[in-house]
Amino acid sequence: MNKTATVILLSTLSASAGLLAAEASTSRYSLSLATFENADSDIDGGGELGRRSYLLGARADWQLDKRWGLGVSLGYDKLDWDFSDLPGNSVADRVFAASQFDSAQRYSASISLRYNLNRHWSLMLTPQLQYAYSDEVSSSDAESYGVIAGAIHRFNSGNMLGFGIAYLNDISEVRTVPYLLIDWQLSDRWRVGNPFQAGFTGPAGIEFSYRISPDMELGLGASHRTERILVGENEQTLELTEVSSFARLGWQLGQGFNLNAYVGYFINPELELSEPEIKRELDNYLAGAVHLSYRF
């Protein structure tokens, strides 16, 4: 079993990104660096899979005037998947083994446009573009694009609740994903919010957090996650879907720096090869992460 180091939240730049984050100030910029590693997981029918990822992100938010806001985010992820001991007893086994890869790249970009209808309601529209492909194939067929729309209500208390729909034209598959937008202060110490941004990796998820001290916070959350990577010609993809549950311990280090450590448990993971369609279930597994961000 590999030592652990970081969970999925790492396609995001902060736990309160997007519409919820940008309303707090006239402008904000952030940079993030994360590393992720999971324990080796047994594959149904034979073999193991271990994963390690390194994720870089940058985001900028501007409140243009009283009604309009704009956000831009960029991301680059290096994905290492370590397949081992895959069997070759049948044709399906050999085809599945041939789709394995050692390393993949993922590039992403999005633009968020926000409009305040009044002091209580805001609308958001976010076009997204992503390229995710293994090192063995060309990036030319790895394009995915989509758009996310959302509406959110700000209560007099400052709490926010809304809903959204993500239309995602992923590699060789179109998905429509509903999601909940929430930022709710339950008490002086307890809060519930979204740990992710909705997008190609899934809906925004939900996290309950407890403020231990002014500089330290404990969170517990869960979400459905998807990773879809181009691995062959004719839009052949390998997709991993799973439900993640995680615990987070966060520190505000001062000078704009925040450090979060995660321990996660991934439930019902499944690998699916698109052409031909071959599915393999994985055992549940542990994972861990470290996420460092800087805001200025």
Automatic annotation (TrEMBL):
Signal peptide location: 1-21
Keywords (A to Z) from UniProt: Signal
Tagged with keyword Transmembrane helix: no
Keyword Signal: yes
Domain of life: Bacteria
Domain DUF6268, residue spans: 109-280
Gene3D superfamilies: Autotransporter beta-domain
Coiled-coil residue spans: none
Protein's recorded name: Autotransporter outer membrane beta-barrel domain-containing protein
Organism per entry: Shewanella chilikensis
